[in-house]
Amino acid sequence: MSALSARAGSVEVRGGSQDSRDEILKAAMHLFASRGFHETSMSEVAREARVSKALIFWHFKTKEELFVAVLNRLLEPYFIDFSEEAGVLDERAQLRKLVEFYLLFVRDNASSVRFFIAQMLHDQHFAEGLNEQVLKLYSGYRNMLIELISRAQEKNLCSRQFTPAAAAGFLLSALNGILIEHLFVQNHPLDPESATAMVSGWLFGEDLKPADREGKAFA
Amino acid sequence: MSALSARAGSVEVRGGSQDSRDEILKAAMHLFASRGFHETSMSEVAREARVSKALIFWHFKTKEELFVAVLNRLLEPYFIDFSEEAGVLDERAQLRKLVEFYLLFVRDNASSVRFFIAQMLHDQHFAEGLNEQVLKLYSGYRNMLIELISRAQEKNLCSRQFTPAAAAGFLLSALNGILIEHLFVQNHPLDPESATAMVSGWLFGEDLKPADREGKAFA
DNA sequence: GTAATTATTGACCGAAGGGTTAGCGGCGAC
DNA sequence: GTCGCCGCTAACCCTTCGGTCAATAATTAC
């Protein structure tokens, strides 16, 4: 915020402490996210931020505090509000939009997603604070799905084979499965269109276009 | 193997070098799997194995070599052969069996599965050697699914809506999604029966029993 | 019995890690 | 001007880490 506005002058005229703090955070984000907590030393962060190690400890009491700050910063893009887009679309289109949004987000933030998953699986210590926030995001998304599916079922727009909660859960599992396949198998382009077609084919019982029957996203 | 048989006497009469090597491996397995590579020190391993640190370096040249040995040891349970069970069952039952097997395995080896996933996501260095083996397992499983689905489609036992490869891919994604949900949401019991019912409901277009419509595995 | 080989150890080493401290330049307040 | 605070640094401290080494038990070989 003020960190950026203060940098009006084109070159390295940084003055305020916010500026160095930001530089440190950026360097730490990069290093922590790509190497992990224990494999990143404060000296490395200092070097990458072109700042003395002591300054980092002036901004952040401990390495862990810096790490938590990085976690929160990396988490920001995950808090998105797309309620306004909903207005005109019917439930089926909204669901499709929601699924596509998930897949696009994962594709465009793969490295950050990978980092968070690895972090939560690996380190229960930090995970505790993290779990709360991630779970909030996750259940928010799930609730939107449930709500939409429920309304779609009322209007007979989709199969009533499952309860909305079960359908949403299964859908989420499929999405998560696509996610991890994408993270593991490199060169797996995660084609959101094909995957969305596949998933909504299941959900709405639609007949698929011949191209989608091959499920590029899963082959 | 001989490690155990040599310990016939009730108390600590271990002799051969294999015995101490095994003790070290067991300690290292435990520590690496629960804390990770970088967070585990050789001194800790030595203490847990009740052995001097120097002895570890006598058995294993470096920490990394020990870690690789641990990886291979932890990977052993994953190589299972269940071709003989197939014999009498029809394709539909075989598929159900295969799905259930996946889920049971994940449930019963959750900590090891968690460790491998975290490891592969986190550390590309070791992941390279690991990826090969894991990918072999994975594509082996996938090929069995494809083969079975293909035969099931020929016999009209299941929907022909998708190509076998696409159906297998989607199925695997669903399974992986269940897997990660199970790893993240603690107290999520991963009910294999319910999940299998759900999944085969999708695959075979079967009507579900009322209890399964609620999809306990996903709620 | 003794020589060689195999297991095992305590003590040690240099490097790197997280964190501290004393101090320095600059700048606003008075 | 000078006092005091803020931003910042070089040098230092202590601990831990991966790894080595010389010495010593314990086995085996002959």
Please provide a brief summary of the model.
Chain A is built from eleven helices and no strands. Chain A is an all-alpha fold. The first copy, chain A, folds into two domains: 72 residues, Orthogonal Bundle (Arc Repressor Mutant, subunit A); 140 residues, Tetracycline Repressor, domain 2.
Structural commentary:
Two copies of one chain form a homodimer. Chain A has 219 residues and is mainly α. Chain A has two domains: 2-73, Arc Repressor Mutant, subunit A (Orthogonal Bundle); 79-218, Tetracycline Repressor, domain 2. Helices cover 69% and strands 0% of the residues of chain A. The first copy, chain A, is built from eleven helices and no strands. Chain A has helices spanning 2-5, 17-35, 42-49, 53-59, 63-75, 91-108, 110-122, 124-154, 164-184, 192-204, 210-213. Chain A starts with a helix and ends in a 6-residue tail after the last helix. The model of chain A is unreliable at 1-14 (pLDDT under 50). Chain A binds chain B through residues 36, 38-39, 114, 117-118, 120-123, 131, 135, 161-163, 165-170, 172-181, 183-185, 198, 201-202, 207-208, 213-215, 217-219, and chain B through 36, 38-39, 114, 117-118, 120-123, 131, 135, 161-163, 165-170, 172-181, 183-185, 198, 201-202, 207-208, 213-215, 217-219. Chain B binds a DNA duplex (30 and 30 nucleotides) through helix 4.
Average pLDDT score of chain A: 84
Q: Approximately how much beta-strand content do the residues of chain A carry?
A: under 5%
Q: Would you identify the CATH architecture of the largest domain in chain A?
A: Orthogonal Bundle
Give the structural class of chain A: mainly alpha
**Helix-residue proportion of chain A:** 55-70%
Largest sheet of chain A: none
Strand segment count of chain A: 0
Treating each run of at least 4 consecutive H or I residues as one helix, how many helices of chain A?
11
Order of helices and strands of chain A: HHHHHHHHHHH
Q: Largest interface by residue count? A: A-B, 45 and 45 residues
